[in-house]
Specification:
This protein is of the alpha/beta class and 444 residues long. The chain is 42% helix and 17% strand. The strands form three sheets. Strands 1, 2, 3, 4, 5, 6, 7, 8 and 11 form a nine-stranded mixed sheet that branches. A two-stranded antiparallel ribbon has the order 9-10. The radius of gyration is 20 Å and the shape is globular. The structure holds 5-hydroxymethyl-3,4-dihydroxypiperidine (IFM). 5-hydroxymethyl-3,4-dihydroxypiperidine (IFM) binds next to loops.
C-alpha cells in the first residue's frame, strides 16, 4: 500500500495532523521565556550530545507563521503543539509574561485562520526551574501549581483549543527522568521515581478537573507505548516483560481508566509511594473525551540480576532500525490500539498522537529524499487502516514531527522532521515525506 492509498482508505473526517513541542522548536532565549529544568540539564557535562540546548532550536518564536503555512500547505487539518509553562510564567507562579500570552494568541489564531484544529498539550517536559529546584515532580506541590497553570491556560486560550491534554508521555516525565536519568532532572532513584510516578498522575487529574470547570469538552491524555517482548520463552523473561509493561504502560492506563495502580509495580515501589496516594485515585480516573497513543518501537526484555530493583535490561533485536537505533515494529502499534479499546476504554475516540522516525537524512541538490520515513509512516498508517476497518474508534493520526528539532539528550543529531531545518540559517526545506503527504492530502 502507498501512503496515498492508506490515506484514501481512511474515512472522511479522519484527522491528519503533525506535532511539535515548545522546548524542541520555539527557542527559549526569545520572548522572555523563563528557565526550565531542561536548560539546567543541558548545562551539565555529558547530559546532552554536543552540549546543545533549546536556546534557539528552530526559532519557531520568530518563524511560527511560515511554519503553520507548512502544516496547512501539506494538507493537514490539525496541529499538535505544547504551551511552555516557563514562557507563560517565567519567574514566579503568578507573574504572567505578556509576550508569552501574545505568542500563543498569535499561534492559535494563526492555526484557526488556516483551518488547522489546535491540539494542545500543557506540559511537554519544560518544567520551570523554580519548581524543579524545589523537588519538581517528587513534590505534591508541583501538581497543585500545575492546576493553577492549567487555569491560566484555560482562561486565556481554552475556548480556541479543539482538544487538550495535561501532560505529554507521563512515563518519560516520571520513570525515564527519575529512574533511568536520561531526561531532566537526570535522577536515578527508586524513591524519587515512586513519588514522580504518582504526582504526574495526580497533576493529570487536577488539571482535568480544572479543564472541566472551564467547560472544556475535548479533554484527553497522551500516553507513550513501547511494546515489551520477552527476549526468549523463559519464565523469567516473560515475567520481566510483564513488569516492564506494568511500569511503562499499565501504570498509566490502569490509573486513568480503572482508578488503581498495577500491583506488580506498587510492589516494586514498596514503602516509597507518597502517603495516602489511594485518596487521589478517583480524581486521576475522571472520565476523558479521548486518548492519544504515541508509538515508535518495541523493546526486548532481558532478565539481568545485576540490574537493581527491576532485574532486567532493555535491548534491541535484529529488526531494521531507525537512526535512534529503535526497531521498526508496526505490530506493536496494533497491539496497543486494540488493548486500549478492548480492556480500558471501549468506544472512547483514540488518536495516534505521535508516530515517526529519526533518519539519516541527506540534503542532495537542495532536496531530502527520505524514502525510509515514507515507508515507516505508511507501514504504521496501514495498521490504522486495518483497525479502523475492524471498527476501532481511531479518529486521527499525527506525524512526529513537523520540523527537525531538539531531540532531548540527543541534541540536534537526530532528525525526525518531515521538514528539514538548517540550524545555521533556519531555512526550512520540505522533505519527500512532506511532499508525499501533500500529494495524498491535497491531490491536484
Ligand atoms: O521527540 C520526542 C517527543 O518529544 C516525545 N515523543 C517522542 C519523540 C521522539 O523521541
Amino acid at each position: 500500500m502507498t501512503l496515498a492509498a492508506a490515506i484514501r482508505s481512511l474515512p472522511d473526517g479522519f484527522t491528519f495532523g503533525t506535532a511539535t513541542s515548545s522546548y524542541q522548536i520555539e527557542g527559549n532565549s526569545f520572548g522572555g521565556c523563563g528557565q526550565s529544568h531542561w536548560d539546567d540539564f543541558c548545562r551539565q557535562d555529558g547530559r546532552v550530545a554536543n552540549g546543545e540546548n533549546g536556546a534557539v532550536a528552530c526559532a519557531h518564536h520568530h518563524h511560527w507563521a511560515s511554519d503553520l503555512n507548512l502544516v496547512a500547505d501539506a494538507g493537514f487539518d490539525a496541529y499538535r503543539f505544547s504551551f511552555s509553562w516557563p514562557r507563560l510564567l517565567p519567574e514566579t507562579h503568578q507573574g504572567i509574561n505578556p509576550d508569552g500570552i501574545d505568542f500563543y494568541d498569535r499561534l492559535i489564531d494563526g492555526m484557526l485562520a488556516r483551518n488547522l484544529r489546535p491540539f494542545a498539550t500543557l506540559h511537554h517536559w519544560d518544567l520551570p526551574s523554580r519548581l524543579a529546584n524545589n523537588g519538581g515532580w517528587q513534590k505534591r506541590d508541583t501538581a497543585n501549581y500545575f492546576a493553577d497553570y492549567t487555569d491560566l491556560v484555560m482562561r486565556h486560550f481554552g475556548d480556541r483549543l479543539a482538544a487538550v491534554v495535561p501532560i505529554n508521555e507521563p512515563w518519560c516525565v516520571a520513570w525515564l527522568s527519575h529512574y533511568w536519568g536520561h531526561h531532566a532532572p537526570g535522577l536515578t532513584s527508586l524513591a524519587a521515581t515512586a513519588k514522580a510516578m504518582h504526582h504526574v498522575q495526580l497533576a493529570h487529574g487536577l488539571s482535568v478537573a480544572v479543564m472541566r470547570e472551564h467547560g472544556h469538552k475535548q479533554v484527553g491524555a497522551v500516553l507513550n507505548k513501547e511494546f515489551p517482548q520477552p527476549i526468549d520463552d523463559s519464565p523469567s523473561a516473560v515475567a520481566k516483560a510483564e513488569l516492564f509493561d506494568g511500569i511503562y504502560n499499565r501504570w498509566f492506563e490502569d490509573s486513568i481508566f480503572k482508578g488503581r495502580y498495577p500491583e506488580d509495580v506498587l510492589a516494586l515501589f514498596d514503602g516509597q509511594m507518597p502517603g495516602n496516594f489511594e485518596a487521589d485515585m478517583e480524581l486521576i480516573a475522571a472520565p476523558l473525551d479521548w486518548v492519544g497513543v504515541n508509538y515508535y518501537t518495541r523493546s526486548l526484555i532481558k532478565p539481568d540480576a545485576r540490574e537493581p530493583h527491576i532485574g532486567f535490561e532493555c535491548v534491541r533485536g535484529d529488526l531494521p532500525k531507525t537512526d535512534m537505533g529503535w526497531e521498526i515494529y508496526p505490530e506493536g502499534l496494533a497491539y496497543f490500539l486494540k488493548r486500549l479499546a478492548a480492556d480500558y476504554c471501549p468506544n472512547l475516540p483514540i488518536y495516534v498522537t505521535e508516530n515517526g522516525m529519526a533518519n539519516k537524512d541527506m540534503m542532495v541538490d537542495g532536496a531530502v529524499n527520505d524514502v525510509e520515513r515514507i515507508e515507516f509512516l505508511t507501514a504504521h498508517l496501514e495498521v490504522v487502516v486495518g483497525l479502523v476497518a475492524e471498527g476501532l474508534p481511531i479518529q486521527g493520526y499525527f506525524v512526529w514531527s513537523l520540523l527537525d528539532n531538539f531531540e532531548w539528550s540527543y541534541g540536534y543529531d537526530k532528525r525526525f522532521g518531515i521538514v528539514h531545518v538548517d540550524y545555521e540559517t533556519q531555512k526550512r526545506t520540505p522533505k519527500a515525506s512532506w511532499h508525499a503527504f501533500q500529494q495524498s492530502l491535497k491531490p491536484e
